[in-house]
Amino acid sequence: MAICTAVLPVAGLGTRFLPITKSIPKEMLPVVDQPLIQYVVEEAWSAGIEQVVLVSSRGKTSLEDHFDSNAELESALDAKGKQESLAAVRGLTPPDGRTICAVRQHAPLGLGHAVLCARAIVGNNPFAVLLPDDLIWTGDSAPGVLSQLVEQFEKSASSVVAVMEVEQSQTCLYGVIDPFDSEIDSRERLIKAKGLVEKPKPDSAPSNLAVVGRYILTPEIFNFLSTGNKGAGGEIQLTDAICALLAQQSVYGYRFEGVRFDCGDKAGYQMANIALSLERPDMREQLIPFIKEQLLNYSAE
């Protein structure tokens, strides 16, 4: 069955980026010259997604507006002969046959609750979840991560979550999969899970394979999210629901190709800006000497 719908939880307040997020949604913060939300929406389109569902909250209508047409702006750009900018603006509207819609998460009850808010739109179909905080860059070397997960889902017809290796000391920051095979071949990408643990302490973590912000889930996940059971932090946790789903269905972790930047963290966000700026030929020649100079200055202190 094709994956046609992607759910993007975007209702958070972005408190780690205050004061800028007092008036600007965190998902609209730019990485180089486009906002975080645009990277994940474009990743969804390239994976064949037909409908993107923004699970939003009060004061975040700019996320929808970003992908809407703006006749006045387009007319002004056309009149000034700014065809490159005009093409960029027009390219934001969904391709033919594809849509972006929004639903409200009226209370901050957790990631699992945010996904549950999209149930009426998703229906009884498998669907994707993408977290805009996780910018995963594949460049020209590989398809987008969601495309990689779609390929795995088509083979297994089972829920698949993106995983990456982290330092053992960092397991307390993630949901971590408990693999069937404790001795995982480093070349193996698809790993069958027997369980998931939310933010385990390093000395009790079942592995160092952390779940990051890309999922393909079967609709049965909603049966577990709708119970209202709360987990870590007193919130409805998506990890707990996936763990419960494992009692009925197989779930796999997929070690993706790409580099993940945690743009919910200030340092990670700056790393994404630096890395993606260096990917741009029009910026690279100016940035490399500047970065080298800054490094020399710091090493001299």
Structure notes:
The longest helix is centred in the last third of the chain and has 20 residues, at 281-300. The chain has helices at 36-46, 61-66, 71-79, 83-90, 111-116, 119-122, 145-156, 221-225, 238-245, 266-278, 281-300, and strands at residues 5-9, 30-31, 34-35, 51-56, 99-104, 127-130, 134-137, 159-165, 175-179, 190-198, 209-217, 251-255, 259-262. It is built from 11 helices and 13 strands. The relative contact order is 0.15. It is α/β, with parallel strands linked by helices and 301 residues long. It is globular, with a radius of gyration of 20 Å.
Topology:
Layout: E1 5-9, E2 30-31, E3 34-35, H1 36-46, E4 51-56, H2 61-66, H3 71-79, H4 83-90, E5 99-104, H5 111-116, H6 119-122, E6 127-130, E7 134-137, H7 145-156, E8 159-165, E9 175-179, E10 190-198, E11 209-217, H8 221-225, H9 238-245, E12 251-255, E13 259-262, H10 266-278, H11 281-300
Helix pairs in contact: 3-4
